[in-house]
Design goal:
Elements (H helix, E strand, L loop, with lengths): L8 H4 L13 H4 L13 H7 L26 H8 L14 H14 L3 E5 L2 H12 L5 E5 L4 H10 L6 E5 L4 H7 L4 E7 L11 H10 L3 E5 L4 H4 L9 E5 L13 E5 L1 H14 L5 H12 L1 H21 L3 E5 L9 H7 L6 E6 L4 H10 L4 E2 L9 E3 L11 H7 L5 E5 L5 H13 L1
Helix pairs in contact: 3-5, 5-12, 6-11, 13-17, 15-17
The structure holds pyridoxal-5'-phosphate (PLP).
Family: Belongs to the trans-sulfuration enzymes family.
InterPro entries: CGS1/2, Cys/Met-Metab_PyrdxlP-dep_enz, Cys_met_metab_PP, PyrdxlP-dep_Trfase, PyrdxlP-dep_Trfase_major, PyrdxlP-dep_Trfase_small
Cofactor: pyridoxal 5'-phosphate
């Protein structure tokens, strides 16, 4: 250390040490600067400008892609200002990056949340949250209609660490409350659920959480902040697979958790240890996708509703699951708490076995056969032979997966073209 620097060694290398400290050091939990949230503005204004520095490097209008794993310090004095928390800036890619901060602040603005943390996938986000919040002996209660990997993570993997998961029938609040005990830390649901599109009454869900002093988590991937903002209902954590509508172009994987700052600080700190972060290129794609979020969602909603209505009226269709239809069991809840109903539709083909159902899927000319949802391209799949292929027949019955079920993720193509394509596929 140069002798001309007036540094008191002990005061710099003592209580604020990053290692072994319960309180997260400032650079692991704080944003680099106060970014505009455009609170009170429309969603497109928020998604185009929210969370961005007004003046970017070299006057660039877009967020430059920072392809760096590490960040240099001018001098040791500069470094020491940083480790003392006097200068909030980047240090090392696992703890944050300019591209990440921009996306996180934009996401928080869209969710009306104090903060948001971005992960390398939706699953990485839920693993990060649960690993932070749960320990051996803790319990969580889930509504049972859920993304099958969430269920798998809880029942197979959290169980190995002594965390107990209770699954109760979706929407059965009495069963949920009965499953809560002194060890319960969190109640969890999707809304709408995948693939049955069941919507959860968030006022009741939050009331149960508050009455029992347990935290609440909603996977709002299918809803998106365009259609539903769970934070406004008092939900503690909002989880997204940003791979879906937020990215919107079927070209990236990402996930996020949004909520109050004090709850998320330790989650962010653990992400810095787990390392489930995105590359700058990925974050740039996510940010670029988010700029057109509202426009895309308007078309997804329009396509979803009109195609659901078309399917419901088609003689070869037995049942349509879409929360925008009056026939959906949770339509009233959806209509009361959502702005639109999204682009995902599940339907069954009348009198069809699995092969006749597969022929409908194969006959589609615009919709492409693939897992995932929420992108600009329309995707079609038969859950039996896609996500649920490896389940036993008993499990498929339990999860409500029928042989003649088709899941359609409406993209943003023209509505008439998609309807004509489905018509010829059903009529074939
Ligand atoms: C509702 C829902 N939540 C979470 C996930 C997991 O997200 P990811 O695939 O980005 O890990 C998915 C993935 O399909 C999903 O559909």
């Amino acid at each position: 250390m140069p002798t001309n620097m007036s540094i008191d060694r002990d005061s710099y290398l003592s209580s604020d040490s990053v290692c072994g400290d319960d309180a997260p050091p400032p650079h692991l939990v704080e944003r680099a600067d106060d970014r505009p949230t455009f609170s009170g503005h429309g969603l497109s204004t928020q998604s185009v400008h929210g969370g961005e520095q007004r003046q970017k490097p070299e006057g660039s209008i877009t967020q430059p892609i920072f392809t760096t794993s590490t960040y240099t310090f001018e001098s040791t004095a500069d470094l020491l200002r940083f480790v003392k928390g006097e200068d909030i800036r980047e240090e090392y890619g696992r703890y944050g990056s300019p591209n990440e901060k921009s996306v996180e602040a934009k996401l928080a603005a869209l969710e009306n949340a104090e903060d948001a943390i971005v992960y390398s996938s939706g699953m990485a986000a839920i693993v990060g949250l649960f690993m932070t919040k749960l320990e051996s002996g803790d319990e969580i209660v889930f509504f049972d209609q859920c993304y099958h990997r969430s269920r798998e993570f809880c029942s197979k993997h959290l169980a190995r660490y002594g965390v107990v998961t209770h699954q109760v029938p979706t929407g059965d609040f009495a069963a949920m409350e009965a499953a809560i005990n002194d060890r319960t830390k969190m109640i969890v649901s999707e809304s709408p659920t995948n693939p049955h599109l069941t919507c959860i009454d968030l006022e009741k869900f939050v009331a149960i959480g508050k009455a029992n002093e347990v935290e609440t988590l909603i996977d709002a991937t299918l809803a998106t902040p365009y259609n539903l903002r769970p934070i406004d209902f008092g939900v503690d954590y909002v989880w997204h697979s940003a791979t879906k509508y937020l990215g919107g172009h079927n070209d990236l994987l990402a996930g996020s958790i949004a909520g109050r700052r004090e709850l998320l600080d330790p989650v962010r700190k653990l992400r810095g240890v787990l390392g489930s972060v995105n590359s700058a290129h990925n974050l740039y794609l996510l940010e670029r996708g988010m700029k057109t979020f509202e426009l895309r969602m308007q078309r997804h909603n329009e396509n979803g509703l009109r195609i659901a209505e078309f399917l419901e009226a088609h003689p070869r269709v037995e049942r349509v699951y879409y929360p925008g239809l009056a026939s959906h069991p949770t339509h009233a809840i959806a209509a009361a708490q959502m702005r639109g109903f999204g682009g995902l539709i599940t339907f069954t083909v009348k009198g069809a076995d699995w092969e006749a159902t597969a022929r409908v899927v194969d006959a589609a000319k615009i919709a492409r056969i693939a897992p995932s949802l929420g992108g600009v391209e329309t995707l079609i799949e038969q859950p039996l032979v896609m996500s649920y292929y490896h389940c036993t027949p008993e499990e498929r019955v339990r999860f409500g997966i029928d042989d003649n079920m088709i899941r359609l993720s409406c993209g943003i193509e023209n509505t008439e073209d998609l309807i004509a394509d489905l018509k010829q596929a059903l009529d074939a």
